[in-house]
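User: structure tokens for Calnexin homolog, please.
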Amino acid sequence: MIMMGRFALLVFLEFASMQLLCIAADHDAAIFYDSFEEPFNGRWIVSEKDDYKGIWEHSKSEGHDDFGLLVTEKARKYAIVKELEEPVNLRDGTTVLQYEARFQNGLECGGAYLKYLRPQEAGWKPKEFDNGSPYSIMFGPDICGLTNKVHFILKQKNPKSGEYVEHHLIDPPRVPSDKLSHVYTAILKPDNEISILIDGEVKKKGNFLSAQDFDPPIIPAKTIPDPNEKKPEDWDDRVRIPDPNAVKPDDWDENAPMEIEDMEAVKPEGWLDDEPEEIDDPEATKPEDWDDEEDGVWEAPKIDNPKCQTAPGCGEWKRPMKRNPAFKGIWNPPLVDNPNYKGIWKPRDIPNPNYFELDKPYFDPIAAIGIEIWTMQEGILFDNILIAKDENVAKSYRDTTWKPKFVVEKEKQKAEEEAAGSDDLGGFQKVVFDVLYKFADIPFLSKYKLQILDFIEKGEKQPNLTIGVLVSIVVVILTAIFMLIFSGKKQQPRVEKKTEVAADTSNDQGSSGEKPAEEEKENETGGAAPRQRRRDT
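Assistant: Done. Predicted tokens:
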């Protein structure tokens, strides 16, 4: 028995030593790594710009002995930067950017992204680090209003124009909506593939040179509309025009009022014509310190006339108003097809003077890592910032630094849900919302994506609305399906043969949404006139 115990101990010690060796090897393989186990003072430089008043702290993550870089105050701007020992060449093989962020108090409006800065020769200083400091890549979460995304922005210099342009990853993943630790990873591969991972799971893949993956495209369009070409003065782009032959009917009275007195109305019995709706309060007395010369003549406050409480009304009776059946409003001639319609004008395309070709993006080297954010919530914790050339190294760090914390936090969250008696409901809702997020990514629903995501967010914040959210999204999906089925049956614009560009703008034709004036006024007035009120309170 003793021999077996010693054997088990030896096996454990050997396994532990191997794990430590792996961690040490990964650390050596990392180009940059900061666990924030040591205070950041002296290593990271806080911006001295006046706008950045937010205070950074070296603090433990809630529920752990693990330290991180903490945002301590709400409604503040923060800026801090760490220079690298050597610039990182992003054009050389694979590059992995990874870090952890935890919203310990939630995040409703704020950023938690990192900026990977160009060398200082580009025109910035660490103590003057701000939102104008030149970066090569911006990566990480950003939430505020309708914005909810994990940014990936490449800032690249156009070799023709010399200008730096921000290229945004299209349809980036959403930010997890909880208070747990999450790890964000961007993998840049030499074949121009870009992968965004959250908690080790691929959430978005793209290609740097694809026009479908970055906006604006990293490779510009070969042609552009001629900026010097102007629309001819005689170009008529009105699809429909007022009928020039239409004549206002003789019986159309534009001066007829919208409402008239109801001559059939009869004054209710018991109406008190001579009683006012309000009377002086008989119990009110003039204050002893009231000075007529300084305060003016004292008047008793008014109260509702008690006699009017049991009567149908008081004061002068007036007939109520009703809708005038003769009302037609301002006459407008009907719209007819414009015989002179030439289609929607657009300038001709010319070769793009700033067009260029390349086999991979021109990444500026990374010389520093900066955090420059504005946030309405405190409690954002940054941790385990890593730059590596091997995605397996990044995975090893996730497994050894992030995952143990996440497991503990997840178990605690589950225990709290069970204690609140909402585990079954919460689990059901999580499944529902996960499915709905996938629905939002379906291509033919892209037009309605923001609307669907807005419904989902409301449901996540107010779990009792889950069923209502489901119904709302089902209605949106059915509407999209209906539009998809029947949009192809719409009659093509008759002017398509006249111009090639008409087809491109068919969605804009006939979309002015104008209504005849009489319809607008009818909508404003609604149905019957409001009933007579005794008094407004």
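User: Anything notable?

Assistant: Residues 391-419 form the longest helix (29 residues).
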